[in-house]
Amino acid sequence: MNKYFLVIDQGTTSSRIVLYNKKFEIFDIVQKEFKQYFPNEGWVEHNAIEIWNDVRGLIFKILKKNKLVSRNIISIGITNQRETTVLWNKKTGKPIYRAIVWQDRRTANLCEKLKRKGADKIIQKITGLELDPYFSATKVKWIIDNIKDAKKYLKNDNLLFGTIDSWLLWNLTEGRSHITDISNASRTMIFDSQKEKWSEKILKIFNIPKKILPTVVENAYNFGSTKLFGDAITIGGMAGDQQSATIGQACFKRGQSKSTYGTGCFLLMNIGKKFKLSRNRLLTTVAFKINGKKMFCYEGSIFVAGSAIQWLRDNLKFIKDSSETDKLYKKANKDENLFFVPALTGLGAPYWNPNARGTFFGITRNTSKEDIIKATLDSLSFQTYELIECMEKDSKTKISEIRVDGGMVKNNSFLQSLANISQIKIIRPSNIETTSLGAAYLSAIQSGHLKNTNQINKLWKKDKIIKAKISKSISNSNIVKWKLIINAVNNFY
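Structure (tokenized):
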């Protein structure tokens, strides 16, 4: 009987199910996009029931398509969009409000009030995170304070909180497991990443009751089992998408870095076993904890990456498919001095300005859609460069190469832009689906099919190396212009 690892890769715009064989090669993928809700400016929501129904339906679909039964599945791994917040009634199993997405900025004013009281310093010291609407804590508070039945459910002990991993796990196990893993917990802004427990001090700041929170465990763990697809299947691995990609990219040594280009862009650098705060407005977060060994990383978050390409496709109608941007980039006028700051949902690291908005600089009558596409892709390279600069200052380590993944790295023009601007070697792996791969590895460790991370190192393979084709002086000249522009946008808003 052929056996597979089944991975739930639940992202910001779509849910995917990936089957890996025992050699960790992709056997099949099924995917479905779901609706994005924007009820007010800066608000982003998902229907958590729709997400769960899609995930369950996709699992049935991939099993049926490949004539598989539950006995063909060794273990299930879960990886997910992080920080997105769901509160649900544990009696009915229904969310009391839509999921508030990590991109949502509705709690910006609350964050500003707390900063004036000095809460940001307390929060950073305990969690390693910036006080920002990005994280789960202020979203939980908003739902409790603003949704009519929240306090009633709290009083009756019927309210539960989870990020998307916990929500899916609770549904898969039919309410038996209310658990999260340490990487997702470290992104809530209420978890003490050093002591590995929910912080009483921060819970008090946000007035969040501890009883609604899930239990926190390692990344490779027996999270429970699901009987929804036949015989019981163990859920053995779980990690937030960026940490899962770090595992999939085999960044297990201090100094190794990966950058994922999905809906957003996330650059992570392994900084080793010690918790060290950033002095350059990066995040310190848990990379993973496997077999009792915990590693930390610095993370720089760019809120808009692939979603900028979606915007070009869906709103501006410049393209019908994101793959077209590769050829159109090459047709752009190289003499156009066009810059785009893609702050469509605010600016992430190192600015942390939730009120900033997207801005073009240098539009002329000669500007074409090709120029706008080039400026959009280059903006991600410039922002990545700024994160690299901050990481090198914080870690006192020179980054010589970055392993890249995510849907956007299929675009060779973008990768060349990234190499040109950063002047760093860019490595694309043979499997760019490293987020789902990381979760497959975790479930394999839990099930005994892999023993440790050394075995994952041996499985990682590179596909392409991209080096800079322009001089450092030209790159530096463009970076100076970029910094003037992004600082002007940051100061304006």
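The two ends are 60 Å apart (CA to CA). The first helix runs from residue 48 to 65.
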